[in-house]
Fold this sequence. Notes:
Elements: H1 10-22, H2 27-56, H3 71-82
Helix pairs in contact: 1-2
Amino acid sequence: xxxxxxxxxxxxxxxxxxxxxxxxxxxxxxxxANDAQVxxxxxxxxxxxxxxxxxxxxxxxxxxxxxxxxxxxxxxxAILESKGVGEQGSTTEAD
Length: 95
């Protein structure tokens, strides 16, 4: 266990003391219980985010299916397209 001192407003201190008292706990027990509740809530939030991410994984269609394997080729192609260079290396604009 680690002991430390914190500063609370008078309202925060009374609210914490009152809540602990109503739960039949010491202030230290109430703080530890709150910490456990926050940790559980954070874990649940992370789980929900992971579930949402898994649910949408693979649902987007970005065109080519081989982007992971041919990333460099697609990157060069995108750069050339953005500069107006066609397949044969010539510009698509009228010279």
